């Protein structure tokens, strides 16, 4: 049970835990300051974004699914088939069919409200071209408006 006890600044507030229900009184009454700030471009990584992704030109739809927020993949569709977008280490990605067959891979470049996928020569470029742009998507897989 957490209460906001005071607003410190425009973007910061103090929270206090009344009871953590763990039985350990050490954490009862615990307080912390939460604050927010805009991300810098070099801090962006699409693998940590909770939104979905879409590219209508290539019929790629990865809806925003609340159950996959902490997973490194997104379930979606490509040409009416179920596919998965996997975010890998070092800004790499893969598209896989349900049977785990990789049909495209490459590097993803994260921007504030979209990302570019740059495909490997031998895995995806023949299907999608050199690169495509993915927009944020809502729970139905439709593009969200750009950030202002």
Give an overview in words.
The protein is mostly beta strands. 3% of the residues lie in helices and 45% in strands. It has 1 helix and 11 strands, in the order E-E-E-E-E-E-E-E-E-E-H-E. The strands form 2 sheets. It has an 8-stranded antiparallel β-barrel. A 3-stranded antiparallel sheet has the order 1-2-3, with no helix packed on it.
List keywords for this structure.
148 residues, mainly beta, eight-stranded antiparallel beta barrel, 11 strands
Total helical elements: 1
> What is the N-to-C order of secondary-structure elements (H for helix, E for strand)?
EEEEEEEEEEHE
Distance between the termini: 35 Å
Instruction: Give the uncertain stretches in residue-range form.
Output: none
> What is the radius of gyration?
20 Å
Question: Oligomeric state of the chains?
Answer: single chain
With strands numbered from the N-terminus, the spatial order across the biggest sheet is 4-5-6-7-8-9-10-11
**Share of helix, binned:** under 10%
Average pLDDT, all residues: 87
Question: How are the SSEs ordered, and which strands pair?
Answer:
Elements: E1 2-9, E2 12-17, E3 31-35, E4 52-55, E5 60-62, E6 73-78, E7 81-87, E8 92-97, E9 102-110, E10 114-119, H1 125-128, E11 131-137
Antiparallel strand pairs: 1-2, 2-3, 4-5, 4-11, 5-6, 6-7, 7-8, 8-9, 9-10, 10-11
In summary, what is this structure?
It contains one helix and eleven strands; from the N terminus they run ββββββββββαβ.
């Amino acid at each position: 049970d957490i209460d906001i006890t005071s607003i410190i600044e425009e973007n910061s507030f103090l929270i206090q835990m009344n009871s953590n229900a763990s039985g350990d009184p050490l954490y009862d009454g615990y307080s912390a300051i939460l604050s927010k700030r805009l991300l810098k471009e070099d801090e962006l990584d699409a693998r940590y974004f909770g939104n979905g992704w879409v590219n209508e030109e290539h019929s790629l739809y990865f809806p925003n699914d609340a159950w996959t927020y902490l997973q490194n993949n997104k379930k979606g569709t490509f040409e009416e088939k179920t596919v998965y977008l996997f975010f890998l280490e070092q800004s790499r990605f893969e598209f896989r069919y349900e049977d785990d067959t990789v049909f495209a891979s490459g590097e993803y470049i994260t921007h504030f409200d979209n990302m570019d996928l740059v495909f490997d020569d031998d895995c995806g470029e023949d299907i999608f071209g050199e690169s495509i742009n993915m927009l944020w998507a809502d729970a139905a897989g439709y593009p969200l408006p750009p950030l202002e």
